[in-house]
Design goal:
The strands form three sheets. A seven-stranded mixed β-sheet has the order 3-9-8-7-6-4-5, with helices on both faces. With 404 residues, the protein is α/β, with parallel strands linked by helices. The chain is globular, with a radius of gyration of 21 Å. α4 packs parallel to α5 and α13 packs across α14. The chain has two domains: 134 residues, Aspartate Aminotransferase, domain 1 (Alpha-Beta Complex), CATH 3.90.1150; 234 residues, Aspartate Aminotransferase, domain 2, CATH 3.40.640.10. It is 40% helix and 16% strand.
Length: 404
């Protein structure tokens, strides 16, 4: 028989990056994930976090997590189905349902499991999942676990989506699934176009608001609220690992839909429940999201400052309309050299390569926090300008999308 482990010797690109001293992954932090972090004893500007509202450092969130451990202990020791449901879970779910204006909500142990569980439960053997080609891996894997057919449409292309929908037998159930904000390049879903087509063809619409909840909309409810179409979203999912400063995720929908997912989602039924500390932290973060809109305002001020600075320097930033701003480089080995230069200059960013992005579209992913200062962002821009000029990654000429 062939050796099962033979494939393990063929993974060469990461090893090449390590040999070059440019390996950008699995770097241990020695501090809180705030606007600055400590790595190897050195303070760095953090531009590689999803901590959009800066709540992982908020005293109220930390105290809520500590209090939950004191009351409930460190874990639930079982699944929600059996012994793992706490009154705290129920409280969080009721608050979340009210927040996103749905009848009910269900919390999962991770955001990845949320999409895995909800999609695989809802998309049955005779159904079709229609997904944007750029959706998150959790959506792709959820579709793979479902028994239905998977069809894809070109990224944010409503004409192509309509072409796909026209080819589906009207007797089949259809779930259109998109990200609210696409996590690598920061562009925003065309919610008005999606709603128009889902109504025209009798489909259902699911939006993963992971990178937009707490960030977009008057009340921080995401891009659906931003476009005034929250009521048109049939299935709303999001994670707690970003604006909610915790871990976990939730799905919200009509009560009978959540009841069905609660009893059919294997990712929920066969996983230990969300720990008490994480549940309480998410609840405390929700309190802040609902009562302190000024945090969103500061986040957008920082976003405009960095995006303007990057454009003025000549970086290619794609069509970002969010606090996620890419610096598109293209070549993967040039990218890791660029990342290393930024890292050595005291700026922590994320290097994104295939399959997270298209093979010829390797990029540095930057993201903003409400708690960044202008001084920190200017320091990062100065380093980016110096390294970008040295490596020749400026002025590549791709147009930048207008802000929504």
């Amino acid at each position: 028989m062939a050796d099962l482990f033979a494939k393990c010797e063929t993974l060469t690109k990461p090893r090449q990056a390590e040999e070059m001293g440019c390996y950008p992954f699995f770097i241990p932090l020695e501090s809180e994930a705030g606007p600055e972090v400590t790595i190897d004893g050195r303070r760095m500007v953090m531009l590689g976090s999803n901590n959009y509202l800066g709540l992982t450092q908020d005293k109220r969130v930390k105290e809520a997590a500590i209090a939950a451990i004191e009351r409930y202990g460190s874990g639930c020791t079982g699944s929600r189905l059996m012994n793992g449901t706490l009154d705290l879970h129920r409280t969080l779910e009721a608050r979340l349902a009210s927040f996103v204006r749905k009848e009910d909500a269900l919390a999962f142990t991770t955001g990845f499991q949320t999409n895995l569980g909800a999609i695989s439960a809802l998309v049955g053997r005779h159904d079709v999942a229609v997904i944007d080609r750029s959706v998150h891996a959790s959506i792709i894997d959820g579709c793979r676990l479902a028994h239905g057919e998977i069809l894809r449409f070109k990224h944010n292309d409503m004409e192509d989506l309509e072409r796909v929908l026209q080819g589906i037998d009207s007797r089949r159930g259809v779930l259109i699934i998109v990200d609210g904000v696409y996590s690598m390049e920061g562009d925003v879903a065309n919610v008005p176009g999606l709603v128009r087509l889902k109504n025209q063809y009798g489909a259902r619409l699911m939006i993963d608001e992971a990178h937009s909840v707490g960030v977009f909309g008057e009340g921080g409810r995401g891009v659906a609220e931003h476009f005034g179409l929250l009521d048109e979203v049939d299935v709303y999912t999001a994670t707690f690992s970003k604006s909610f400063a915790s871990i976990g995720g939730f799905v919200a929908a009509k009560a009978d839909v959540i009841y069905y997912i609660r009893h059919m989602a294997r990712a929920l039924l066969f996983s230990a429940a969300l720990p008490p500390a994480s549940t309480a932290a998410a609840l405390a973060a929700l309190d802040v999201i609902e009562t302190e809109p000024e945090r969103r305002e500061r986040l957008w001020e920082n976003t405009r400052f960095l995006l303007t600075g990057l454009k003025d320097l000549g970086f290619t930033t794609g069509k970002s309309d969010s606090p996620v701003i890419p610096l598109i480089v293209g070549d993967e080995f040039l990218l890791v050299r660029f990342w290393r230069g930024l890292f050595d200059g005291g700026v922590f960013t994320n290097a994104a390569v295939s399959p997270a992005v298209e093979p010829d579209r390797a990029l540095i992913r930057t993201s903003l926090m409400a708690t960044h200062t202008v001084e920190q962002l200017q320091r990062a821009l100065d380093v980016m300008a110096m390294v970008g000029q040295e490596l020749g990654v400026l002025s590549r000429g791709e147009p930048v999308g207008e802000r929504v």
